[in-house]
Specification:
With about 190 residues, the protein is α/β, with parallel strands linked by helices. It is about 25% helix and about 35% strand. The protein binds glutamine.
Length: about 190
Amino acid sequence: MKIGVLALQGDFALHARALARLGVGVVEVRKPAELNAVGGLIIPGGESTTLLHLMQEWEFFPALEKFHAGGRPLYGTCAGCIVLAREVERPRQFSLGLIDVTVERNAYGRQRESFEAPGVATLDGERTAMEMVFIRAPRITRVGPGVETLARHGNDAVLVRQGTVLVGTFHPELTEDTAVHGYFCRMVEASR
Ligand code: GLN
């Protein structure tokens, strides 16, 4: 089983490193055809407007819809979360709508552009404390009825899942904690 990391923009290299640490084969995906070689895909953080631009240029939208319809899991962090959400606010922008959440971009304001904070995750029934890094992070302001909240920072849902789609507003690839990547690998394993 190999997992792809969308390598158009943003911190894809750190996701690749986290997967490598778990002993998982990684493919840096730069063209839609490269999706054929992977069982799941991580869409990294970066700048969602730039990411959307590049995704359109390289014709990733229909390819990702097909990838999703075929049952292969997706994990979006930060900008990746914004791109996968059903609805994006402040400002409104196009998104793939593959998970029923609303996100507000850059929601933590100037004082707290980037911060590290403790949070709690429940992954496969296992409750664990986790250091979470937020960088100009979006906030999940609405979680649809079919969406499961897996982690919180204070009252905010920061890691949520609907079926084969996982999205988070923090960056686990920036810490040594591979719990979220491990969880995504199990989603990919289970989808086969
Ligand atoms: N603020 C960025 C955006 O709106 C996301 C930041 C990130 O991915 N770290 O696209």
